[in-house]
Fold these 4 entries.
Entry 1:
Amino acid sequence: MTDNAASARAIIDGNAYMVLATADADGTPWATPVWFAVAAYREFVWVSKPGARHSRNLAVRPQLGIVIFDSAVAPGDGVAVYLEATAEELTGDEIDAGLEVFARDSAAAGLKVWTREDVVPPARHRIYRATASAHFLLDEHDERVPVTLPA
């Protein structure tokens, strides 16, 4: 028997990019990959330009879908985690909380450690957080199975 929660955690832990599926005020869809950091498998943090299409979409419609998967596996061998979430640009003290998560994963990956000065005006980027309300695992049978991930 497969441990779906363990499989979902392994996919999230084993991948650096997630794909955001957003829509504008009229419902026109847009998808974009972003490098992400995660806290407790519920909060997914990234940095983006506020003028990027996905950032503008989230400003007017914060609901989004997210998928995390390994694109290097052979067709038919893929597994993925799908998330239903709500996203926001972080402000105030939430910036520091988001940066703590983002900096931890950035440092672990050998990347630049972002600071508050990197994500507040007049900087070009902002920090965003998606909070997952539901998780699904695409299993080996091509089924999307609801999964509960403990914090």
Entry 2:
Amino acid sequence: MNCQNHLSRVLFVAAIGMSASIGPSQTAAAAEPYRIVNSSQTMGTGGIDYVYADSEGRRLYVPRGNQILAFDLDTLKSVGAITNAGGHGVAVDPKSHHGFSSSGPVTMFDTETLALIKKIAVQGRPDGILFEPASERVYVFSHSQPNATLLDPKDGSIVGTIDLGGAPEQAASDEQGRLYVDLEDKDSIAVVDVKTLKVTAHYDLAGKGGGPGGLGLDVKNHILFAMCHEPATCVVLSADDGKILATLPIGNGTDSGGFNPKTMEAFSSQRDGTLTIIKENSPTSFEVEQTVQTKQGAKTCTLDTKKNQIILIATERAPAPAASAGGTAPATNTPANAERPAGERRGGRGGPGFLDILVVGR
């Protein structure tokens, strides 16, 4: 081997070593920040609450007023609506292709044709809703007892109820038999055995955060992210025993959150027009990675698991009517995202206004 060839090989090996040593960190540092990558705006009437992305069926559902609006998840174009439906949120069973809206009564519909199948009378005041894959049941959550009503998604029959011991907001399943539900009025998280339909534990947030409105779950590392109103904090805790691991600041007015296992990031959407992204560096290390500016009132969100994108919704006041001949413009409606009087539901009716859909990604 001559000296030139030897030198070339040495340099080549050194280059590989340097690339291997800096590759992962360099990739992480070079990750693009989150931003709004797509949006749409449609006129309509009625209040909004939750938004739901059917990642497999590629549809986005937004209950508004007395309808459930359906959009193409990729283009955000309208694909139809289920009328005489409404409600707060939507859940979909990917096997039966049946969708459900948390309303009183619950609306059951066909996700392929958007045809209404039937109405299901349930007790309480339906708010949140979740399809739990381990038990293949739809959980309809209510702020009054029974706090959870379970439906068989194949035929919509009621198969059980659970009193959670508080008012539920959002839930997350480990898909292995445990369901976690944040209780807004109790500052705690209920742990449910989906086989026995029993509450097995309550994890107290110990004053670190109050009024949890969003919940994320890292199934692999058994970590919960409770997004709280007061103070505006994400409380990170063990899903095994409720031990608090960390607290991190978020925006004001959270009402939804989640966790993306592909990016190892938790997220929380807030009424103040921010989306907080929390990075799980390790099972014991967490940091606020980014605060994305969204839109005032965009307090609920959902995850498109195929594109790793977070979708948020908000409403805006309609343009003011032109002044009449006498020079006085008619009174305008209160914006649907404005603070409502005490006791009025977040999913209540609103006047004419725009529905904004925002897609946040990299």
Entry 3:
Amino acid sequence: MTELTEIVRGLQFPEGPIAMPDGSILLVEIERQTLSRVTADGRIDVVAETGGGPNGAAIGPDGKCYICNNGGFEWGTFDGIRRPTRQADDYSGGRIERVDLDSGKVEMLYDACDGHRLRGPNDIVFDNHGGFWFTDLGKGRDRDLDRGGIYYAKADGSLIREVIYPLMTPNGVGLSPDGRRLYAAETETGRVLAWDIIGDGEVDLKPWPAPGFGHLMASPAGYQRYDSLAVDSTGNVCVATLINGGITVVEPETLAVTHLPMPDPMTTNICFGGSDLTTAYITLSGTGRLVSMPWPRPGLKLNYLNT
């Protein structure tokens, strides 16, 4: 087991960590329905109350925090592990929100695309053109499950485009260091997929039967479900892994896969921070913890985040 430093516990299903320049970690608490800040000394401060189910988060070109809100879950505890179960009885609809970090004001930016309502936006990454890619995982109910997709949108509210549809529960999303490749992880299939980017909000869709109309990067054997992801400076795709709790690292050229175990089957997110980006921050959501560990390579510097 990797030696971890526990920063804080008692979080209510944390996800979407962002290592901020001041040393704090901005993250969402999905069950608490907040955007929260964890200070270096482990204090938890609520930045904004979003309602619904705040999920992925990223800093945009205006310095505000953009949140994928999945609309809300019902919750259960199984063998001491907290986890979401199905669409909330008071489901409030999927949307992309923008939060002013100084005032805590929450604005709704997008809740539909081409007349179709967003169902369960999940993860988000900004490119260097003022736009962002995000996944819509969909929502699950007792007897049925939405099909999901990947979207591209502008931070100024002027454009939203459905780019890849349908996918089976797309979750984590990221970009290669040169910005020319899009990565996504599917939860239920346990697959990591990739697409070549050919323009702003455009990818090279491969003909059927290419999986997800892209490139299959990884589909390891055994029962595991993929959550959010981050990319390191050498281009490795680091995927938070559920059930087989840990971080799965996929090397993009050789497609070699390694797994770093974590002490929580609901390991949901990873981000990189510190002065040289060699500290990994990981959300152990089933037990409500944020932990850190040294990472053998620097993480990829994110657009619009001056770490």
Entry 4:
Amino acid sequence: MQLGLINSAWAQAGRDTAWGLQKTKALGFDTVDIFADPLDIGVQERQLIRRECERLDLPIVSVCCVATGLIDFNPSVRRFHLDRCKQYLDLVYEFSGRNLLLVLGEYLWNREVIPPAHQWQLAAESCRQLGDYAAELGVQIALELEPFPLSLLNSVDSMVRFLDDTAHPAVQANIDVSHLCLAHVAPQELRRLKGRAIHVHISDCDGKVHGDLPPGRGVVDFAPYLKEIAAMDIDGAVSIELEYSPEPDQIEAWVAEAYTATDKLLREAGLR
């Protein structure tokens, strides 16, 4: 598999987008994932990203999107987020990417006011509509499993059930190794997602709270998860997801550390 980086890792560098992409390539990454909202960036920034990645021979695999409004009980809010997600899918297409990494978010009001089954249904209906649009563009949607108690998709069980209920070939799963650890998902459970996972995120954590640390700085036992991922034959990329460095002026070293550690892990697992 290819080794990529979500470009939000450079957010605290205080430099322009092109600088971050150039650093990504210089460190040895094969691909990049883009964290950018099409409603917040203009045509010049979009073209800069596309052209710079082409110049660097740094393919864009995924565009990241958080769309918690897809399960909102207000139809107008859902319509807005459906339209917004379609613009994200347009961006994936414009960047010649493979998938939209989609975060559905959490149940509203502690699952107490609106029946959870209704919120689940709204999410499935929204994803079917987005799946249709993605298929028209020739791209896919990768749903992220989040490790939080109220997340719609916080276990392999819920992911499999949601994919079954959505029943759309363009809507598949993302695997996030750190999130699996935090959600206490055993590596062997990933076998249930064989043929249904199209993208992978990797990072470390302290085993208690969401962290997105460079591998080796936390407690994740990567080898068993990567062994299962290797057996899944995913035709895609493993992308490093990093949160802010505790030393902002050392962000380059932070990303370089993550690259070196992850490259070693992937090679040991026969993934690279």
